[in-house]
Design a protein that fits this description.
The chain is mainly beta and about 120 residues long. The chain is built from no helices and eleven strands. A hairpin with a 4-residue loop joins strand 5 and strand 6 (about 55-60).
Length: about 120
């Protein structure tokens, strides 16, 4: 079992920045992939960015060049630095981890970008 707790969501103006954090606990050493997904209002959950234990990173095209994912293995955390935010980035952001082919999700943190 892996437990994930997100923080850092907020209301921000377009063009602003936010940093999301996700703290992992439990069977954290079995995690292969960690990352972030988001669910905009009225839409399905979508990939934002993932990072493997080996450091391979994958971004959604819509956030490339604006968002940066990082992983702190020592502190069992993953972060998402979001710059140049747009109203279309408004969503509930979920931390994600995969361990032994099992997905785990955090409770979500709201990010709202005003125009």
């Amino acid at each position: 079992q892996v437990q994930l707790v997100e923080s850092g969501g907020d209301l921000v103006q377009a063009g602003g920045s936010l940093r999301l954090s996700c703290a992992a606990s439990g069977s954290i050493f079995s995690t292969v992939v960690m990352g972030w997904y988001r669910q905009p209002p009225g839409k399905q959950r979508e990939l934002v960015a993932t990072i493997t234990r080996g450091g391979t990173i994958n971004y959604a095209d819509s956030v490339k060049g604006r968002f940066t994912i990082s992983r702190d293995s020592a502190n069992h955390a993953v972060y998402l630095q979001m710059n140049s935010l747009k109203p279309e980035d408004t969503a509930v952001y979920y931390c994600y981890a995969e361990a032994y082919s099992t997905p785990y999700w955090g409770q979500g943190t709201q990010v709202t970008v005003s125009s």
